[in-house]
Amino acid sequence: MATTMNERDKELSLVQHLGELRTRLMVAAVAVLITTGISFVFATNMIRVLLIPVDCSFIPTYVCDATPTRLIALSPTENFTTYMRVALFSGIALAMPVILYEIYAYIDPALLPNERRFIRFLGLPVILLFVLGMAFCYFVLLPNAIKFLINFGSDVIQNQLRASDYLSFVTTFILGLGLVFEMPVIIYALVRVHVVRRSWLAKQRRYVFLLVFV
Known about the structure:
There is one protein chain. The chain has 214 residues and is mainly alpha-helical. The protein has one domain. The chain is built from 8 helices and no strands.
């Protein structure tokens, strides 16, 4: 009888966890839906902002020559799908605080007090490094990388930037570098939770520094 009651309690506990997970996912999805809808209204302006790195409009001419650029579409639906993609990218970025909070709120009951303090302590550095990485990519790395790629072989190949390809490349590059800048926090967290030992990290410090800074 006691075994049956324990099994029933476990089933109820599992159902409750799944119910809470569903609620958290619904809140995050609604947040993304709202921010994506708002972003779609301003998608034209966001596309113009994403074109600035290839135009080099804020880069000194001795570093990168300004060249006005117009994107092309190769299918009737490409304009709409491109706008939707940009709006979704922006919507996810804007809704990220809500998404992170819902993740934290779901795992919070299972955390020990010191683990809870540790996660809260990492919150601000994670956000700052992510924003710093995206800003570095947008203002420094991306304009020169795009200019190099476009000018490479341009004497025999004419470049025409397709809207979907260019915007996908730019958004992926910006997001990717933002995540790369998270590496110091990730390494610190792995050491604190004893997934990575300090002795091993000390032996591999050359490769770690290369991974973090390059």
